[in-house]
Amino acid sequence: MLLYAAVTIFGTATWALLFHELASRPHLPVNSEHAAGFATDRLGTLIGFIGTAVAAAIGFYWSPIAATALFFALPVFFAIGSEGFERHPSPSRVGS
Question: What are the domain boundaries of the chain?
C-alpha cells in the first residue's frame, strides 16, 4: 500500500510540475487560452497528492481496507469532476 502511494505521489508531483510550467508559460500550449485551465488543474494535483498521502496514512496506521476504498475513490472523484467527458464528443456522436 505504501509503495502504491509513493508511486502515485511521484506521478502526481510530475503532473503538478507539468501543469505549473504550462500555466506559467502560456506560449507553450498550442492554444494560449488553455493556460488558465492548467492553472486550475494544479489544484487538482494538490488534492490528489493530499488524498493519496491521507490514504497511505490511514492504511498504515488504521485500516488497509479503508485506504483501498479511498485509493479507488480518488480517480472516480477526478473522472466525475473533470470536464473531459463534456469537451470531447464520443466517437458515436461525431458522425451523427
Answer: 2-83
For residue 38, give the nearest of 70, 13, 15, 12 by alpha carbon. 15
H helices then E strands: how many in the chain? 5, 0
Rounded CA gap, 26 and 14, in Å? Answer: 19
User: Buried b vs exposed e over 61-71: b needs ≥16 C-beta within 10 Å?
Assistant: eeeeeebeebb
User: What is the per-residue pLDDT across 52-90, written as a single tens digit (0 to 9) for each?
Assistant: 999 999 999 999 999 999 999 988 887 776 665 455 455
In 3D, which of 40, 36, 33 has the Cα closest to residue 16? Answer: 40
Q: What is the pLDDT of residues 17-33, one digit of tens each?
A: 888 888 888 777 777 77
- The pTM for the full model equals 0.69
Q: How far apart are CA 36 and CA 42, in angstroms?
A: 10
